[in-house]
Design goal:
The chain has 223 residues and is an alpha/beta fold. The chain has five helices and eleven strands. It has one domain: Class I glutamine amidotransferase (GATase) domain (Rossmann fold, 3-Layer(aba) Sandwich).
């Protein structure tokens, strides 16, 4: 599986994502700068990492969503490519329109940085196919604007189409229906607040995120 990581000014989890994808795929990820205008041929997965792109000015992810590379990412997604947005990457995905809803300030108005409990809600995707439905896992979070909000029609559509991938098993940020991660209609785009790339190495004390990356590799190889 060939992968790429988009780097924006203010990204701070791009190297963590690079290491996780290298470990899972056995290949060095391509690092794409926000001013790049094309995706290299043969890429299977593009990751949008966490951080504070453009200092989170205007709204989190708003400026990054207008970067030249995001037009290429949108085209890549439209053609069925895998796109993973984590934390700030999730914010960029909703600002770009690749996923519905919006990420708002945490209900506590405080930055949340800790390991949290999650429930796997959907396993019919490359991102979650190595988990069991209803399985409890733990992943780190680190965000100030992680409260997922959408209108009732969008929430119903997400539930009816089984596109809610992950839920918080505990109160974290006030997200509607405790949503921690959602999928696109074709299940190739995933936006999530928790950081799987920070929980994929035994040296980190937690490998619950590793199966997300190995599942993607398996699906890409079988495609």
């Amino acid at each position: 599986m060939k992968t790429a990581v988009v780097v924006f000014p203010g990204s701070n989890c791009d190297r963590d994502m690079q290491v996780a994808l290298r470990r899972a795929s056995g290949q060095e990820p391509v690092m794409l700068w926000h001013k790049d205008t094309a995706i290299p041929a043969g890429i299977d997965l593009i990751a949008l990492p966490g951080g504070f792109s453009f200092g989170d000015y205007l709204r989190c992810g708003a400026i990054a969503s207008r970067s030249p590379i995001m037009r290429a990412v949108a085209d890549f997604a439209a053609k069925g490519g895998f796109v993973l947005g984590v934390c700030n990457g999730f914010q960029v995905l909703v600002e770009t329109g690749l996923l519905p809803g919006v990420l708002m300030r945490n209900a506590t108005l405080k930055f949340v940085c800790r390991t949290v409990a999650l429930t796997v809600e959907e396993t019919q995707s490359g991102y979650t196919n190595e988990y069991s439905k209803g399985e409890h896992i733990t992943l780190p979070v680190a965000h100030h604007d992680g409260c997922y909000v959408a209108d009732d029609a969008v929430l119903k559509q997400l539930e009816d189409q089984n596109r809610i991938a992950l839920k918080y098993a505990e109160a974290v940020n006030g997200s509607q229906r405790d949503i921690a991660g959602i999928l696109s209609e074709n299940r190739r785009v995933l936006g999530m607040m928790p950081h799987p790339e920070r929980a994929e190495d035994p040296a980190l004390g937690n490998t619950d995120g590793a199966r997300m990356f190995s599942g993607l590799v398996s699906q890409a190889l079988s495609a």
